[in-house]
Amino acid sequence: MAALPLSNQYSLPTPRLLLKSPQFATQNLSFQSPNAYKPILGFSRSLPTSSPAKSSNWRHSIKFSKDTTVETSEEEAQLDDFEESESETKQESILTIKSLLQLYKQAVLNKDDTTASEVEAALSHIENEKNTLFGQVTALSEEAKSGKERYIRLQADFDNFRKRSEKERLTVRSNAQGEVIESLLPMVDNFERAKLQLKLETEQEKKIDSSYQGIYKQFVEIMRSLHVAVVPTVGKPFDPSVHEAIAREESKEFNEGIVIEEFRRGFLLGERLLRPAMVKVSAGPGQSKSVDPATPASTE
């Protein structure tokens, strides 16, 4: 007689052999008269262990429940209970196989071909189930490995996105600051011109100049707090990236290529140029005029 198929959630039990009435037990290993009822081979989830009865007039039969399920909790709090249950199930599986082998040995000794064939079918089904579960474990392991690799890639992509977003945010902020500060630079020029043109003669004019200097100083402090710096000019080598040359002049004081005068201040926001400085550049010392030896000296 063929064995009933196992469910994927089947946990192997330990069969129990008991001397019973002809009424066949649904969950326990039982004996019955050979003329009363034919044995049914199946699987049961929870069968207590017991040594098989020694009788040649009774045929052994094993009954296993078909619709068995292993209840596993979906809550993380019950994870320990699930692992403990899994360990117990593994032990029960080992005991079940041992019991089946012992039963098969007795059936061979008693020349009970029916029971032997049923046990062989059960062992074959267990082997097939084991191979199926092994294949599922292998597939799940590969899937878990692939999922881990995808997670690592997603984590790297997220880190790159976060860094790129932060860089873009700082760039937008710097551009906004630059536009605002650049619009205020003409006011700095006006302050500088007014400072040069003022001629303090009376006490009232001195008070006005003092108020003006206070406002200008406060404005400069605000610009400095925003990391605004002045482009260095006089005495520095001409740099076309921050200087705008509007004149070139011979100079005995400065070598060629050195800034000798500033016409308009330039400003930097951090490392970003807001406005180049307008400067005059030295052309070096001029050639001195020498007397031509071929020309005779004039005599009086």
TrEMBL record:
Residues 72-86 have a biased composition (Acidic residues). Residues 69-88 are annotated as: Disordered. Its main location: cytoplasm. GO terms for biological process: protein folding. It is found in: Cytoplasm; Mitochondrion matrix. GO terms for molecular function: adenyl-nucleotide exchange factor activity; protein homodimerization activity; protein-folding chaperone binding; unfolded protein binding. InterPro entries: GrpE, GrpE_CC, GrpE_head. GO terms for cellular component: chloroplast; mitochondrial matrix. It comes from the Eukaryota. PROSITE patterns: GRPE (PS01071). The keyword Mitochondrion applies. Keywords: Chaperone, Cytoplasm, Mitochondrion, Stress response. HAMAP family: GrpE. Belongs to the GrpE family. Homodimer. Essential component of the PAM complex, a complex required for the translocation of transit peptide-containing proteins from the inner membrane into the mitochondrial matrix in an ATP-dependent manner. This is GrpE protein homolog. It comes from Deinandra increscens subsp. villosa.
